[in-house]
Design a protein that fits this description.
The protein is mainly α. The chain has a domain at about 1-85: RNA polymerase sigma factor, region 2, helix turn helix motif (Rna Polymerase Sigma Factor, Chain: A, Orthogonal Bundle), CATH 1.10.1740.10. It has 10 helices and no strands. Helix 4 (about 75-85) crosses helix 8. The longest helix has 23 residues, at about 110-135. The chain is globular, with a radius of gyration of 19 Å. The protein starts with 9 loop residues before the first helix and ends with a helix.
């Protein structure tokens, strides 16, 4: 059995799992929380549970095709998760639309310290959710992989199977649309 330390690359774990399938569990342990968190932000907790689990089932089934010259499997796993999320796009858009319509929840007096921060966040949440729902799927995928998964343009490109230049274009387009919704004064001034 391979000794799993932070220095053991994902590629090494995947390679070892080809002959010792139990080694894949270390890859699961290493990346499941991040994949689940990403899916939960995009969809909902129950769907995130399914998406995260299915991501690792697909990854396990396809581990023989993994490019082991890439030590970090995160872009590959996020790409699988993004493809699975694509099946749930309508649910994702409905969630953003619901958040956009949501009213600010009541804040009790005992939460006075957090009221100002919370109100600012709630005020923006609806507009941001509406803007996310209105983005084309490819632009939304790129924006959320950069913002929530903290992937680089190259990693997003590998995850989605598109050139890094396409990622940068989509990211610029998505950011421009989000900025216009969050701060209409920027649009009026021409930036």
């Amino acid at each position: 059995m391979i000794q799993v330390t932070p220095q053991v690359t994902d590629a090494a774990l995947i390679e070892r799992s080809l002959t010792q399938p139990d080694c894949f569990a270390a890859l699961f342990d290493r990346h499941y929380p991040a994949i689940h968190g990403y899916a939960e932000r995009r969809l909902s907790r129950p769907l995130a549970d399914d998406i995260a689990a299915e991501t690792f089932l697909v990854a396990f089934d396809r581990r023989g095709t993994y490019d082991r010259s890439r030590p970090d499997a995160r872009p590959w796993l996020y790409g699988i998760a993004s493809n699975l999320i694509a099946r749930h796009r309508r649910a994702e858009v409905r969630q953003y639309q619901a958040l956009a319509r949501a009213e600010v929840s009541e804040v009790g007096e005992d939460h006075a310290e957090r009221v100002v921060d919370s109100l600012d966040a709630f005020a923006v949440r609806g507009r941001l959710s509406a803007a996310l729902a209105g983005l084309p799927a490819g632009d939304r995928d790129v924006l959320l992989l950069v913002a929530w998964a903290e992937l680089t343009s190259d990693e997003v490109g590998r995850a989605l199977g598109v050139p890094a230049g396409t990622v940068r274009s989509r990211l610029h387009r998505a950011r421009t649309k989000i900025r216009a919704v969050l701060d209409p004064a920027l649009t009026e001034k021409g930036r």
